[in-house]
Amino acid sequence: MSLSIFFQNLINAISLGFLFALIAIGYTMVYGVLRLINFAHGDIFMMAAFFVFYTMTIFSLPWGIACLVAIVLTMLLGLSVERVAYRPLRNAPRISSLCSAIGVSFLLENFAVVVFGGRPKSFYCPEFFTKTFILGGVRVLGINFVTPLVSIVFLSLLSYLVYRTKNGLAMRAISKDFDTARLMGINIDRTISFTFMIGSGLAAVGAILWASRYPQIWPFMGVFPGWRAFTAAIIGGIGSIRGAMVGGFLVGFISIMLVAFLPELAGYKDAFIFIALILVLLFKPEGLFGEE
Questions:
Q1: I need a labelling partner for 43 at 20 to 30 A (CA). Which of 50, 73, 145, 225 fits?
Q2: Where are the domains of the chain?
Q3: Could you tell me the pTM of the whole model?
Q4: From 3.30.1660, 1.10.443, 1.10.3470, 1.10.10, which CATH number describes the 3-283 domain?
Q5: For 103-126, how does the pLDDT look when each residue is reduced to its tens digit (9 = 90+)?
């Protein structure tokens, strides 16, 4: 493999890694404060892509404004899911919340099939995203420049929110001790709803970048990136934002580099991702950066 092809694949891997990290953080934030896996996260991701599509189609809004509207709508959808499906079961056995999460996932998928149709739809993205740049013999799509920059901006904002604001302090307190945080006067319901909104907003950003990278959307488009991001969150340590980022990069590198270096094993790349997951769980069950 030539050096230029290696760097081309490296850039693709970094871009995809950032994308998985954005989605994985949504899983890890909800688990961190609620100790619950939000299995509907991948389908909230899917709904965000359709929000952009129909906001542009019906209201003829510019792409950038449509994306902002879609992010807000997705955050409200995340809030609604938490209020309807999770909050009433907060004191119920864990299995009840798990069943509710899976039910919401099926509901959103089938809602999208009935309302939006099962046929894939073309997703508009700016011309810059599909433009090819040649840098020293390396061919790079514009989306591979945009994804890391956008991801860094949103991850930096998330880091500021979690570690420099009162809401972030409340989220970290709940993640450490639910009952003590309640006794200290923290509004548990409001903080959990806020966490769902932030996680859903990051899923919306990931959906826009994903649909710009693979410009087709359909009701089950969230399954593939959702499960990979979930795997990334577990590898990094579910509940750890830093772990979700590292896990996202690891999954992105395996997805791209395995195909680049061992094309004959390209069909088994998902198997290698889950092998990495199994090895982490065997030797460090809490994940790379998770707490015991």
A1: 145
A2: 3-283
A3: 0.92
A4: 1.10.3470
A5: 999 999 999 999 999 899 999 988
